[in-house]
Structures are given as structure tokens and as C-alpha cells.
Write a structure and sequence with these properties.
The protein is mostly helical. 63% of the residues lie in helices and 0% in strands. Helix 1 packs across helix 6 and helix 6 crosses helix 7.
Length: 195
């Protein structure tokens, strides 16, 4: 990796996240699922709490959309891949935009940790070693796998190897989402994933 770039912590803007057309129900379900899994990866790496997310919503002036823990929980439960525990609601585009901004804002704050984890992954890969052999990556993979298996409907049916590959892909994605235009990158990825 090249020299470390300075990352601006200025808040991303909702206006940056435009849609060519309104997504249909299936596309919104795909967006919900992917957003929740990206958030699960971020939680597994930096151990964020719902309070951290609510504080970020407040700092980004999104507290009218995500006002409290119950509202946040209901948004997370809108993921159709989650185990049913009631409280599901439909995610609308504004809520999706808000979650994108919050995820990228929190990732930006932890950019150095994310970069260190990705650099470590590159080094381990070059040495043909398993990522679990390092504390940082091993803890991340364990937290992601456990979170996925506990929360997702298909959790027990997905192999540890598949979950590790997904977690490592999401780790690299988080590096991009923690960059200066990360919120645009995540938004475009969601639109691609929705198709």
C-alpha cells in the first residue's frame, strides 16, 4: 500500500446519494440485506454499539430518521435475511441513505484500524498463512461468523469457510467505504447489489 492518506471527517451529504429511479420491493430487500451485512462487518471489527450509531445519526443530523434504539433495531430487523424476532418494517430509501451515511461516518473514524487490518490481510495472504493466525483478523472473523450465525436465517447452513470469505471481502470493502467518498461507493455498491 502507498502512503497513508489523510481522511477528512467532514460529514457526508445525503444529496450525494441520488437514485436514477425508485427501487422496487425486491431491490429494496436486497439493499436492506446488504446494508445489514456491511454493518455486521463494521461491528465485528470495531465493536460499535447502538449508542455509537445513534450518536453518529445525531452528528449527521439524521436523528429525525433514526431517533432511538427501538427505531434502529427495527431498521436492522427489516433485513429479510434475519431470523424473525418481530418488529420488522419496510426500509424506505431515506432510511437506507441514512444508514449508508452512518456506516461510512463510523468507518471513516476507524480508517486507520481498517487499513491496518487490510494491510495485515495482504501480508498474511502473501505468506500463504490463514488469517485466523493473527489476533486482529482472527477476532474479526470470529465476531463476524458468530454474529452472522446468531442473526441470520441461513446462519447455521453457511460454512465457516464461506463466512470467512464474505467477512474478508467486506473488510476490504470497508476500507473503500472509510475513504473520502466512501458513502458514494457504498451507495453505488448497494444499487449494483439491488439488481
Amino acid at each position: 500500500m502507498g502512503p497513508i492518506a489523510k481522511i477528512s471527517l467532514s460529514p457526508p451529504r445525503r444529496e450525494d446519494l441520488l437514485l436514477p429511479k425508485e427501487p422496487d420491493v425486491q431491490q429494496l430487500d436486497n439493499i436492506k440485506a446488504h446494508l445489514d451485512i456491511v454493518l455486521l462487518a463494521l461491528e465485528a471489527l470495531i465493536d460499535i454499539s447502538s449508542e455509537d450509531m445513534l450518536k453518529a445519526a445525531q452528528q449527521l443530523n439524521l436523528d429525525s430518521i433514526i431517533a432511538d434504539r427501538v427505531g434502529l433495531w427495527r431498521l436492522r430487523q427489516s433485513n429479510p435475511l434475519r431470523k424473525s424476532s418481530g418488529g420488522r418494517k419496510k426500509l424506505d430509501v431515506e432510511e437506507a441513505r441514512s444508514l449508508v451515511l452512518i456506516i461510512c461516518y463510523l468507518a471513516k473514524q476507524q480508517h486507520e484500524l481498517i487499513r491496518r487490518a487490510v494491510t495485515l490481510l495482504e501480508q498474511i495472504t502473501e505468506q500463504n498463512k490463514a488469517p485466523h493466525q493473527t489476533a486482529l483478523l482472527g477476532d474479526y472473523l470470529d465476531a463476524f461468523t458468530n454474529g452472522y450465525q446468531e442473526r441470520m436465517e441461513e446462519g447455521e447452513n453457511v460454512s465457516s469457510e464461506q463466512l470467512s470469505r464474505l467477512a474478508l471481502k467486506l473488510l476490504v470493502d470497508l476500507l473503500f467505504y472509510s475513504s473520502a467518498n466512501g458513502h458514494r461507493r457504498l451507495w453505488l455498491a448497494l444499487l449494483d447489489y439491488a439488481r
